[in-house]
Amino acid sequence: MHYLRRLFSRFARWRWALPTLLLIAALLHCGTLIKGGLYADDFIHAAYFQNNPVLADKGLLAGIGAGEFSSLLANQFNFFNPDTANYSAQINFGMLPWWTDESAKLHFFRPIASLTHWLDYQLWPDNTHLMHLMNMLWYLLGLGAIYALYRTSGLAKPIVVFALLLVILDSSMFHVISWIASRSMLMVIAAGFFCLYAYHQSIHIDGRPRRIRWYLTSLGALTFALFSAEGGIAICAWLGAYLFTLDQRSWTTRIAHLLPFVVITLVWRGLYQHFGFGAFNLDFYIDPGHNPVAFLDRAVVLLPSNLFELMMGTDLMGGQIRHDIKVPFGIAGLVIAGGLLWLLKIPLKEQPALRFYALATLFSLVPGLTIVLSTRTMIIPFIGFSVLLAAVFYQWSTSVLSRAQAAGSYVVMGYTLLIHGFLATVLAIYMTLTTIDFSGDGDMERGVKSVGVDDYAEKHLVFVNSQKPFWLVFFGVEHAYRGEALPATARVLSSAFTGIEITRPAPQTLIMHAEPAFQFDAASVIDTSNEPAGHYAYLTQHLMGLLRSQHTPWHTGLARSLPEMQIFVDALHNGKPATLRIELTQPLEDYRFVYWDMDAAAYEPFVLPAVGESIKVKGIFPGPHHSPVSE
């Protein structure tokens, strides 16, 4: 251990330390750059920028201003909005499922990020490798900005280098870098931490003209971050932490210095709200400006449990802890945080820089509570937390510790080396190598590749159930991007959480019953705490909250009239649909039915039962009063 300490200390003081770390970062994240390909939201963006004619013919691009520069700056991140002309087409085609809350909206305003994507499609529209390269460059710029802040804020050089290495190895970053549409988060990191660096320089650098230049640069960088993505608000949390720690001037001067940043943030928020951007009536995203009560209710439990994930290096989970164990996880997070602060009590007392990073870690967890689970919400807090982990190593190597502190330090260091060092490196290498397709195929193996039938072109494709119904949102745009034929409609009837029974009382009528009810939002209809698949299902369950809030009421008799069928809610269980009636309005030969086969883990053709008969289909969970059902 002492040999490693001396070796690393020597490396930290080497003038090529930063370029070496940036090279390591580039190598660890080069997989998607080499392979290319699109994923999820990327297909929606491609459709918008390229004005895909197949999707345009179905009305799915109406009102977006597809292909128009000015419109796309506002609409690139318009996923669904009842006020946009394409909304009815999204419902009619099946891009949005029939149970989507008609008052729900998901429309973000990220004009600067949108501008970079527009440039992609102007300069290299068919080269996704270069699009991924742009992500990589923003990532490396962000690491440079983080290093600059670390280096000038008063941290010892070994802490700076080790903390940056931990950030590079952070598993949460992989999903962001490999996803072109997540470039906005990389831009927030690059601009945001440059803002913090410039803000620090505006206070500590010599010469009034230079301070003014740095101050104006900092204001510009914050504006850039906010108009790149909503995540830029986390940089305001870091500025707040700076106010209480590194800024040693009078309180009047501190507040006056920060006031223009507050004004910029309020103007950004005012514009955002005035023009109706944001997430409305959803559980997956909660905008505290629109629904402060729901946000505070979520924060009480989610903040401590997110703290636990951050502390334990499981931030890759990004909130995927079930509700029934969030409380003990939260308590554990608070206990571990207390232990870490105890280990660092002397340097925290003596060094404002460490207090800054500790407070910034805590403050920047709060903006991430707006989304129920996502790995990217943990990245900015981890940039602060990595400094605390590095400080434990540095204190151990340079100070005389009590027996208890030494033992605690060994536990933290051992765990850090195992999780954030060894396992993170192995995961990084594995993810990079498995992403690279040495055959040269650029299509990423994600999304809905096979639906169990091939002859669905211009037919009504019906998914009786789906293990991951949210991902069918991308079915049409993904297949249109590849030039593949689309069905007339692509309709998902239910999720596959519970088993369902399908009865056919008349040739064109289907009755679907779930025990105890259908899973159409994020509130679990059954207790999954003792189910082996509970954690796995939790992610998909929460994605249901992207389309409907659990607080949106259902009622019997609710009807949805669609181009190829009518859907009626005939019975409820505890306020959730338990029985659906489907009236098919087109000739039966125009339909293609498929279902998710739990045993085959794939979509398979579904044959309707004979009139007067029933078929049972397995779900992930059998339900409380059902034995496992099968086809």
From TrEMBL:
Transmembrane portions of the chain? 130-150, 155-174, 219-243, 255-272, 325-344, 356-373, 379-396, 408-431
Per UniProt, the keywords (alphabetical) are: Membrane, Transmembrane, Transmembrane helix
Record-given protein name: Glycosyltransferase RgtA/B/C/D-like domain-containing protein
Lineage here is:
Bacteria, Pseudomonadati, Pseudomonadota, Gammaproteobacteria, Cellvibrionales
